[in-house]
Amino acid sequence: MLKLDLRLRELVEANTHKARRNLELQELSDIPAALWSNWWAGRARPSSEMLMALCIKWPEMSLWLMTGATDPLGGQISPSTPVERSQPTATRYLRRLCEIMDLKNAEVGYDFWEYEVDELGALEGVRKKELERRLTSVASNNTATLPEPIGQYAMDDAAILNLIKQCRGGWTFHDSLRAQFVCLHALGEKRVSPMIQALLVGIKSFQEKCSLADAFSLIASEKATSEELQALTAAKELLEIV
To answer: What would the DSSP string read from start to end of 45-61?
Structure first.
């Protein structure tokens, strides 16, 4: 609880003005300034309502606030995350989503309006394009200069094997981006291996929304060299394709 309290203080300090801290917190949460003052002075523990209010206000820092972990690739940062590793497009999407969900939870019978669905879809599309742009721009860089968690996938075979294992159960969008980065980096170095071929099959399956077996057949039809076909055959075992 102590570490959570310290992270909460760091979050508040980074996003409010010292002279108006308690009033600003009251305005964004509808929790009386006196209660915020009691917590800040150490006379009370932060309530679940306080934590929920700040997670809704700054959802891009909710993972860090509650666990201490960050995932810059997924848009989850901390107050100390360097600007170059933050994702403004993800922040805009998460904040707007939480604003709408807060309204939905507060009003009985409230449902998404069509314009809200369109707005969230547009923000999510911009976010995905920005992730893909970053992925492409760093593909030729040295992995030592790349932000985690991307860098580890370029260097760690165990992490790549775990990504392949996750592929068998279904990837998230961010999993597919990590796989694309690994493949771009490997192909840039002209490396051919069963693990890289397995990722290529996973990417094809995710993008085409087809089974791994169908994606394997599509990839096999595109291979031009015996080395690639040999690696792809070995990848079939990694993916547990019957």
So the answer is: PPPHHHHHHHHHHSGGG
